[in-house]
Amino acid sequence: MKSEILSALRQSEGYISGQELCERFGVSRTAVWKGINQLKNEGYQIEAVQNKGYRLCGYPDSISKTELESRMHTRWAGKNLICLDSVDSTNDYIKKMAEEGAPHGTLAVADYQSGGKGRRGRAWVTPHGSAIAMSILVRPQLAPEKASMMTLVAGMAVAKSVKEVTGLDVKIKWPNDVVIRGKKISGTLTEMSMELGAIHYIVIGTGINANVTEFPEEIQDIATSLILEKGEKVDRAAIICAHMEAFEDFYDRFMEYGDMTLLRGDYQELLVNQNQQVRVLEPGNEYTGIARGIDELGQLLVEKEDGSMVKVYAGEVSVRGIYNYV
């Protein structure tokens, strides 16, 4: 009930009467009054005026279930929502939920993550009230060899949502790092469970440096945050909800063909590698070339100095001007 009342208050341009809330949700005035008081106790500033009703005047920096549900406008992504004050890893949490039968689209969001995982097993810790740590469960009818493209889909959703909410110039470094002015603000970790050549489920974990103001010395030169780039705190709940809307749209388009065919153009508009010099580091093989976008399988197309085109499926790709590559 709290989420529904909060959503109604957000959508109202002015005051909304208690009677209207009663009729809309089929509850008593007492139930509405209790819901309003619960919201006040959670930090929402709600003005009550006799003969006018209620009006939302301010809200806390919260990523609670109430806050997110009141702002989530999706069909399936994030509809089964789990909000955690603290967790070791949202990916591990969702994997456990997946094994217990959680439905497609289940989303876990944590205010504090103590044991998050970055690339190559690196730790990623999110301090209370500063970053965004979330993982979504999907159960696609998809060949296992195509699962890796989900990281590209997730990266696109991060870039679109951050740009939409903050107005910052956000780009993607292939395959899924989201960067601003050459520094990383987000990454994605995808984990899959499969058997007999079929996908059981995929968990897509996303971390975004939202209101983080300090970084460990070893990553200060390559990482940044939205608050540092924008110069003011950002609305984490707005970004999470916008991310779910974007992810749902991109995921559905991806699943039409089971590849990047319908997303290729959108992805390349965000690609910081596009037509830039890159250095490809593969085991036992290193070369430079010009990135020419991606193919329908999400592979990076690199034009080598001799004019030949190489498809990069995996491996380190350094982009000139990104992460101190000069």
From TrEMBL:
> DNA-binding region(s): which residue ranges?
18-37
**Catalysed reaction(s)?**
biotin + L-lysyl-[protein] + ATP = N(6)-biotinyl-L-lysyl-[protein] + AMP + diphosphate + H(+)
Q: Which GO terms describe its molecular function?
A: biotin--[biotin carboxyl-carrier protein] ligase activity
Q: Which UniProt keywords apply?
A: ATP-binding, Biotin, DNA-binding, Ligase, Nucleotide-binding, Repressor, Transcription, Transcription regulation
Q: Record-annotated residues binding biotin?
A: 89-91, 113, 184
Question: Which CDD domains does this chain map to?
Answer: BPL
In this chain the BPL/LPL catalytic domain maps to 65-255
Q: What is its EC number?
A: 6.3.4.15
| Organism superkingdom | Bacteria
Q: Name one matching Pfam family.
A: BPL_C
**Which Gene3D superfamilies does the entry link to?**
2.30.30.100, Bira Bifunctional Protein, Domain 2, Winged helix-like DNA-binding domain superfamily/Winged helix DNA-binding domain
The UniProt family comment states: Belongs to the biotin--protein ligase family.
Write out the function statement from the record. Acts both as a biotin--[acetyl-CoA-carboxylase] ligase and a repressor.
Q: Which NCBIfam families match?
A: birA_ligase
Name of protein? Bifunctional ligase/repressor BirA
> What is the protein's species of origin?
Muricoprocola aceti
Q: Lineage from the top down?
A: Bacteria, Bacillati, Bacillota, Clostridia, Lachnospirales
Q: Name the gene behind this protein.
A: birA
